[in-house]
Amino acid sequence: MPLNRARLEIASAFSWRRLCTVLLGLALSIGGLAPAGAEASDPLPSWNDGATKQSVIDFVTRVTKEGGPDFVAPQDRVATIDNDGTLWVEQPIYTQFAFAIDRVKATANQHPEWATQEPFKSVIAGDMKAVAAMGEKGMVEIMAATHAGMTTADFDQTVEQWLATAKHPRFKVLYTDLVYQPMLELLDYLRANDFKVFIVSGGGVEFMRNFADKTYGIPPERVIGSSGVTQYQMWDASPVLVKQPKVLFVDDGPGKPEGINHFIGRQPIFAFGNSDGDKEMLEWTAFCQRLCFMGLVHHTDAAREYAYDRDSDVGKLDKALDEATAKGWTVVDMKNDWKTIFPAAKAGP
Amino acid sequence: MPLNRARLEIASAFSWRRLCTVLLGLALSIGGLAPAGAEASDPLPSWNDGATKQSVIDFVTRVTKEGGPDFVAPQDRVATIDNDGTLWVEQPIYTQFAFAIDRVKATANQHPEWATQEPFKSVIAGDMKAVAAMGEKGMVEIMAATHAGMTTADFDQTVEQWLATAKHPRFKVLYTDLVYQPMLELLDYLRANDFKVFIVSGGGVEFMRNFADKTYGIPPERVIGSSGVTQYQMWDASPVLVKQPKVLFVDDGPGKPEGINHFIGRQPIFAFGNSDGDKEMLEWTAFCQRLCFMGLVHHTDAAREYAYDRDSDVGKLDKALDEATAKGWTVVDMKNDWKTIFPAAKAGP
C-alpha cells in the first residue's frame, strides 16, 4: 500500500508529464542525458512531399503551438476518421460484407430453409451478381442473419477467427494487412500531438472493435459505428448481451455528425473520410469555429490499390469531392501523394 | 516545426511515462531529487476508516500491483459510475426533472395551449402532487416538451444557464455544489491509478455532459446516458443537430450493460451505483472474470443528506441491496462511512 500511495501522490501532485518536464530539465542541465531522437525527423515518411502532406503538418503544427492564434487545448483535439476506404481497403466489397457472406456459407447447414430462400440461396451458390441485384434489402437480410441471434461474446469470437484466416480476393493476405501505411503514420502523428483519435464509420461497431486496437491502436471506446440493439439476458445465472435483428443506429451520412454527438459529445477539429458517406461529418467538422482540418482519400491508384470515385457502388465519392474542391479541403491523390500504400512486406498487387 | 517534430519523436520513441521512468531513475541515482509527496497519504480523506473504505483501497491496490495475481493492465481498468444519487443528490426529485419543470414554467407564455393541457397545466400551477399522479406518461411528456425541438447547442446553453442559477429547494445552493466529496476523492483516486472513469447514468447524456467535465473532471466522451434522436439539418448553410422528441436509448436497468457495450465496448472491472437501476450494471461488472469491484451508496443520513431505500419513488434501492448483501458487494453506509458529504463551504442541511 505505501508503494501504491506513493504512486498516487506522484501522479496527482505532478502528473507524469509535468514531473517528466522537471526531470528532463534537470537531466539536460547536468549534461547527463540528451533525449534520443530529439533531432527533427519526418512524422509522415510514407507521404510524398507536397501540398497534401504539408497541409496536414501545417494544421497539426498550428493547433499545437502554445500561445499561437490557432492553439487548441489538448482536451479539445478531437479527430474523427472513417474506416472503410480511409484506413483500410473497401474494394471489391466492404470487408464486413465479405465476413457476412462467409458466415452465410459457413452456417448454411444449420439453415436448410436457405436452400430455397433469397438472398441466401444466391449467396450459397456464389452468385454475387444476383445478390447485388437484390440491393439494400438483400444486404440487410444477410447482415441481420449473420449479426444477430448470438451473444456479443460469441460474435466477437467469430469475427476474430474470420479475420485471422480470411484472405482478400485480390491481395491474398489478411484483411487487417490491407491497412494504409500513410494513415497509420497519420494516426501516430495525431496521438503524439495529444489528439484523441476516434474511428467514425458506417461499419458495425462490434465488428470494428475486434481489430481496431490491435490494428490501429484505437481502443474500443473510441470506435464509433453502426450498431444493432442488444438485449441483456441471464443464461444459467450468467449475464449475456444478445444481439437482436434490429438496427439501433446507422452511423453513415448525416448519421456521422449525429453519432459524433451521441458518442463523443464534442466538435471534432480534424476529420478524414473518402466517400459521400463522410460528407456530413466533414461539413460538421468545418463548422468548428476555429482552425479545423477536413480531408478525403481519393482512390486514384488502380495499380497499387484501386481507382474509383463518382460511379462506384462501394465508396462512391461524388458530392463530397465537389464540396472538397469548392471549399479547399485536403484531397489525397493516392497515386501521387502516397509513397507506399500498405505496411512493408504485407501485400503487393 | 523542428520543436514539434522533436516532441513527436520523444513521444513516439519513449512515451512520456517511459522517458520519465528513465529520468526518475537517473535523478534518484545521482541523489539530485526526491519526488515530493512520495510519503504515503490518505487517498480518501473524507471516508471514515473501516471495512468500506478498506474494500476500495484493497481493490485498487491489488489490480494495480504489477506482477501480482490480480493485476489488470491500465487499458482494461474501466470504471462505470452512476450519477444521480451516486455522485450527486437526487432528492427530492431528479435534478434533470427539476430543470424540465422550470423550463415548462419559463416557456409557458410561448405555449398558451398548456393552460388547459395536462401535465403542463399542473406543472404551471405548481401542483406537483397532480404531476406525480400522472406517473411516467406525464413525465415523458414534460421531458419531450423541454428536451426536443431545439438544436443541441441551444439546449446546452439553456442547461448551462439553469445550472448557474437554479438552487436546490432544501440546501439552497447550486445543484453542482451538491456532489459527494467522498466520491470526488474516489474519482481522483481511480484516475491517479490509471482507471478510465465513465459515468453510466439513466440521466440524459447531453444534460450531464454540460457539467460533468467541470464538476467531476469527466470529459463528454466518457459520459454515457439516456439519449434522444437528433437530426442533422442545414440552417442558412450552417449545420445543426436538432433534438427530436423520440427516444434513442434508455440507459437504465438492463440498459446500463447494453449502454456499456454500445458506448465503451469493454467489460468494466469497477462499478458504483445506488439504486435498483444499477443492479444489472453491477451484475455485468461482477461477471468480469477477474477481480472486480461492485459498490452501492446506501442513503442512510437524513440529517446531512437523505435516508431512503426500499420504498422511495426516486432512487429506489431494494433488489440491488439484497443482491449486494448476498454477494458481498461493498455497500456504503453514508451516515457512518462518510466523514463529510459535500465539498467544504458549499452546503449544509
Greatest interface by residues involved: A-B, 79 and 79 residues
Mean pLDDT of chain A: 89
Q: Level of helix content of chain A?
A: 40-55%
In total, how many beta strands of chain A?
A: 8
Largest sheet of chain A: 8 strands, mixed
Whole-Å distance between the termini of chain A?
A: 56 Å
Looking at how many chains there are and whether they match, the oligomeric state comes to homodimer
Radius of gyration of chain A over all CA atoms, rounded: 23 Å
Number of helical elements of chain A? 14
- Give me the secondary-structure category of chain A: alpha/beta
Tertiary shape of chain A:
globular
How much of the residues of chain A is beta strand, in percent? 15-25%
Q: Uncertain spans of chain A, ≥5 residues at pLDDT below 50?
A: 1-39
Give the SSE string of chain A: HHHEHHHHHHEHEEHEHEEHEH
Question: How does this structure look, described?
Answer:
Two copies of one chain form a homodimer. Helix content of chain A is 42%, strand content 16%. In chain A, helix 4 packs across helix 7 and helix 8 (152-165) packs across helix 10. Chain A has 14 helices and eight strands. The first copy, chain A, has 349 residues and is of the alpha/beta class. In chain A, strands 1, 2, 3, 4, 5, 6, 7 and 8 form an eight-stranded mixed beta sheet that branches. Chain A has helices at 2-14, 16-29, 51-64, 95-107, 120-125, 128-133, 135-147, 152-165, 181-192, 205-216, 255-264, 279-286, 319-327, 334-337, and strands at residues 78-81, 196-204, 223-235, 238-249, 270-273, 293-300, 307-308, 330-333. In chain A, 44% of the residues are buried. In chain A, helix 10 (205-216) links the parallel strand 2 and strand 3. The model of chain A is unreliable at 1-39 (pLDDT under 50). Chains A and B meet through helix 1, helix 2, helix 3, helix 9 and helix 10 of A and helix 1, helix 2, helix 3, helix 9 and helix 10 of B.
